Queue: 2 jobs
Job 1
Amino acid sequence: MSPAISALAWLGRVVAIVLLVILGSTVLVRFAPGYLSDAREMDSRYAATARNELASETARSRSISQMVGAEIGGWIRGDFGTSRQFDVPVSELIGARIAVSGVLLLRGIGLGWVAALCAALIASLRRKASIAWQIPATVLLAIPTAALATFCLLADSGGPVLVMALLLAARDFKFLDQALRKAWLEPHLLHARAQGIRAWRLLVAHLVPALAPQFGALASLSIVTALSALVPVEVIFNVPGLGQLAWNAALNRDLPVLLAVMILMAIAVTCTGIGAVWREDWKSA
Amino acid sequence: MKLRRPVLWALTGLILAAVAVLCLPGASYAHQDRDATLASASATHPAGTDALGRDRMVRVAAAFLLSLAGAIAASAVTTAAAAGIGTIAAFGRAAMGWTTMLFCDVFLALPWMFLLMMVRSALPLTTSPAHSAAITFLVLAALGWPASARAVYRGATELKNSDWMLYARANGLTCVSIFRHVVPNLFPLLLPQFLVSVPAFVMAEANLGALGLGVGEPLPSWGGMLFELNNSPTLMQTRWVYFPVILLVVVLILLEGVAAEA
């Protein structure tokens, strides 16, 4: 397939997935048993007229076609709809937080990858898999992100970047160690090492280019893992990012905000996932 | 026998210990000892009490069993759904396979935590604790199948193109018979999917609960106990609040170990 057709197919798939995400999320929310209930309707501080207005607002949003139309309309206008909780365009809320989350993700993923790669390189050069490398990774993977973040916060050592990096490093180390260990056993590399060629030269000239597709796929997976860890990390460290915004929206049933954040996440994941496949198509073309 | 493996023995031992704790006379996860709030370990409360005077050991035992049972049930539902959808997609028309995989892509494009939060936040405001637990694991089961379905689809497609299957289909094997032969052949693929999902669901429940979106009080859950860590004065008063977290990590390591052995 030519690169142009590949790019078009990639774009088409991204658009189709995003539209399906909008449709699916809206249907999911609309048919959730508590969608038509609003916490404010139970609040006695609201006057009867205000509660009636809330009830009629809920009644207006019963139709799925209207809901999907409003959501797509919001995306076309660029304001992503209006927040139920703050009564401001969702774009204003997201715009202020997207950079904070972006920087946190970039630093966390970068640090995690460097740590995982260094550890995997050192560990894979040994003949046998050492349990000393595996134990920390296994234990870190067994600690829920929220607990890890709380421990770091209580110990006053490390911030959100470190938690994100530790989580990703533990996850990626296992894959990288396995991939590198297998690669070092390739006959041509064994022969080269027996001839006395230094490991780092083999690494740069043979190993990294050969494992590049696997590294790319793992990088895409890291982004998905990091996005899922974003919520507990930002909530516990009180980082004003998208994760905290989504959590606040979930607690206050601010579904337009939650929907907009989720669609943004879906776009990010789809672009990275399909981007990895596209890179492969490009290379083979 | 697989039970000989130390990981499974340790897990079985923990389950039996938890059942034994819950069977002790007077053991109740909701009973409050108002005179001993945030107490340290004692003969009456071996792991101390929480801020409401509830026995931490009993609550941890109940949370462990509830979480494990919920995760196993959710995992079974997910694996069964993945087996059904993956097999039908592989043996159906090409368009059906393509559409199913696109549907899986849509689910996989949504980070779990956000999807769980969205579904959880749209649930009724007056949910009982038992219902909230059921809903949490049901939501996990409903959202966990696409990754497994993809794996099953690949396995079933390979089976579909295998020589014996082509021969059987050429000889007029009916759809029901095909399924009868395909599903046992997919077991080696389904068992790891099931075992991997269990710790993933336990972890997801713990993370959701830690954010205040999991199982409702007074029903004990790992997530609810992690939520306790957000209370700094509690942490200053007793170190026993870390007990559930340590046990959770041990349980998750054991569950990962079981999955790895399979």
Note: The interface with chain A takes residues 102-103, 105-106, 108-115, 117-125, 127, 199, 203, 206-207, 210-213, 222, 226, 229-230, 232, 235, 245, 248-250, 252-253, 256 of chain B (CB under 8 Å).
Job 2
Amino acid sequence: MTTMKQTMYIVRAGGRREVVPSGLLGMVIFVGTEVMFFAGLISAFTISKAGSPRGAWNLPAGQVLPVTSTAVNTAALFVSGALLWIAGRQYRARSSAATQTLAAATFFGALFVMLQGREWVGLIGHGVTLWSSALGAFFYVIVGTHAVHAVAALAGLGVAWWRLRAGRLSDGFFLGAQTFWYFVVLIWPVIYARVYF
Amino acid sequence: MTQMQRILAFKTSRRVSIAASLLTAAPASALACPVCALVGTSNNTWAYQAMSAMLTVLPLAMVGAIVWWLTRLAARADTERQPARQRVVDRAPVGGAEEYSLALSEGQIRRGRAIDG
């Protein structure tokens, strides 16, 4: 005769099973909504730029967006993404090196945010503000929103690193943090190509 | 529904299909771009239409990709379960369907925990 506990096991084993961690699935759906959010911003930017009178889509006082230095920042972001991919492989292989690689990925991500912040300080010093022109407004809104996402994703990576060190990191949390950071890394080239050129 | 009603319904649906096809062939009459009316440049019209297409296709593509990904994961989980099921059948005690069912489910649970851990 089967006990109640055994019967519940049968129902669980036969009926519902987890094919993907809930944390990862939730993050994937969230990232989908974020992609649409950025698509809306880029759409508004593209239509406004195309509709602006000739020569009117500029920053004030002849300023230009720092394309070259931002390319360096972009490289730092890509290095961070690549390091996180390596950390993921090491984590799956249960390698202790994953802690250092994850820390390095977080460092390069933080470096990107700091370098971007330095650029902002320079632009604001030259009179480029949210209200100085339409391009300035779009620049600060789109790039600033990306920076907010980058900071949130870095916080997630930091927590993942802390838990990994303490031996308390779950697969779902790590995959979720990894997915969010990949989103931040992969959406950036689209923003860079659209806004800076 | 009589034969005549069926014929009339078929003709109506065919007329609606033809009318819809003709409407899609004339998109200029359905253009509803508030920004284009203000500026009126062909560049802006192109941007509006391209962005409309992007915002239409992108969510559908993402939902499709997520569904495809989940389906693939579920199919993989099913194929991975098959050998485990076979092993349990091979080792199943001769004790009727109830014992077989218990052995099967416990085997799957142990396997699931090993994957999670």
Note: The interface with chain A takes residues 35-36, 38-39, 41, 43-44, 46-48, 50-51, 54-55, 58-59, 62-63, 66, 69-70, 73-74, 76-77, 98, 101-102, 104-106, 108-109, 112, 116 of chain B (CB under 8 Å).
